[in-house]
Design goal:
CATH class of the largest domain: Alpha Beta
Distance between the termini: 50 Å
CATH topology of the largest domain: Rossmann fold
Number of helices: 14
CATH superfamily of the largest domain: HUPs
Strand order of the largest sheet: 10-23-24-25-21-22-11
CATH architecture of the largest domain: 3-Layer(aba) Sandwich
Structural class: alpha/beta
Largest sheet: 7 strands, mixed
Mean pLDDT: 96
Helix content: 25-40%
Length: about 550
Amino acid sequence: MSDENLKSNFIYDIIKEDLASGKHQSIVTRFPPEPNGYLHIGHAKAICTDFGAAIDFGGTCNLRMDDTNPSKEDTEFVDSIQEDIKWLGFNWEDRLYYASDYYEKIYEAAVELIKKDLAFVCDLTPEQMREFRGDLQNPGKDSPFKTRSIEENLDLFARMRAGEFEDGSKVLRAKIDVTSPNINMRDPVLYRILKIHHHRTGDEWCIYPMYDFAHPLEDAFEKVTHSLCSLEFEDHRPLYNWFIENVTLPAKPRQIEFARLNLTYTVMSKRKLRKLVEENFVNGWDDPRMPTLCGMRRRGYPATAIRAFIDQIGLAKRDSIVDFALLEHFVRTELNASSLRFMGVFDPIKVVIENYPENHVEMMTGINNPENENDGTRQIPFSRELYIERSDFMEDAPKKFFRLTVGSEVRLRYAYFITCTSVIKNEAGEIVELRCTYDPATKGGDSPDGRKVKGTIHWVSANHAIDCTVNQYDQLFTKENPEESGEDFIANINPDSLTVITNVKAEPAVAELAGTKPFQFERTGYFVKDSGSEGLVFNRTATLKDSWAKEVKKS
RNA sequence: AGGGGCAUAGUUCAGCUGGUAGAACACCAGAUUCUGGUUCUGGGUGUCAUGGGUUCGAAUCCUGUUGCCCCUGCCA
């Protein structure tokens, strides 16, 4: 990519500079997820940033499972993570790495620090360590074990590895500065004892390195040049650099932090997402209302839309909340270009065309996708009895209502002009049927006399309609920021985030074509077949923009 | 209170070495349209957090202030 077309952000500025100055000939980045949960749209920002920078500058990006805490991790997640990244369209080729593959080297690094008198084995309990650490106002105090000899530390650390001590009884700590105003520098823990089975190394290890120690080493082993992470690690950077300086390493990576993605009407933290799943506020991690990548995939969001979205939001250091409408914009843009079109009636009223012959059926030709001729056409059966959308008829219609009212003429898409002559109601006063007449000369939807109609509405033939089920998804939360001013986000869950409609009346073509790719129910929205259901079950990906709804809201 | 960060349209971001601000989305108005969709045209809605300073000239440089975020796991 040429420089002019490159997006402008502070990280790209740094990379350009490093390349121009000759500090690096080419760049290496990495995406380092911990395999302890499902990826969400926030991770997509990191993925697009890490892989994207490598692509834009002709470098490489590694995928690295940061599996240093066996108590939380599982192979289930290493599989789903790879699936999601592939789906987004990124390729790590043969560069799939695991922190656990470096355990021996990380151990050696710890030994090197001990030998340099820069690390020691500490017997303080977690509670004691907290006391000794001090707090934001007060400096910490040295551990009484900090004075152990190098030989004793070497011996003790080897025995920690050998499994001689119980979980929590000892840790290895760096000797830095317990009085540092940066709490991360107050002799941080390097290794802890965890007699837990690891999903890859099994029972080979009972001591595991902490993130702060392992991460800079992993980056250096892989000769990562730019290690991109989120803002909360800014305070850890001095520690990151301390390890890079004090351990003998093949490279000196640079950590750069950027702001995470936040989106309106959703939550992004793992803890909160887990709560939604575990307490059944949603139906699993891939529930289409979830901001997880698997959820969005099931919802029908195209990967290309997510990438375009991430591209648009930019990269910076300030905390922000991106408008969900921007994501939807890219989803609609993508889907408008690629979706098949069908007609489906969600809330039917029966229409009888009084002057149309009984038992007669005509086939009308519909265009499958006006944005792409190659998608061809289909045949749609038309007959005397039809269904139209309840909202497409009004008895006392305002002037701007361009749909069906008594005495007005509208076009039935791809069929005829019809005029409503009367309304039939039940005892409760509800409309149960509309009687209409059609103009035979308008077949196909055009009038030979050049007469115009203000509205075009969709329809299905009552006898030919097939029933399908539609999951109508809406925002999971009622507030842009569900945890505004410390509110419990659970209290702001939208009770109407899912509406299931079991008897949507659809044209027959839906049965054969709608399962193959995303489609649009014309005038309604975009849909995909639900991957978790049998039969004709569709998830609403997004509604179409609706300027009439806006008009109604105004008055 | 200590440390680390961040403040530019409603929102997310551009704005390089100083020349009174732009994009996308959102929003408003109109045109086109056999989807009230799409497309097209027009509209900037801003004390560049704030006070002071340097300068002919400051969103850009210096400085004071305020606001917001993060940090006291043997999590990452």
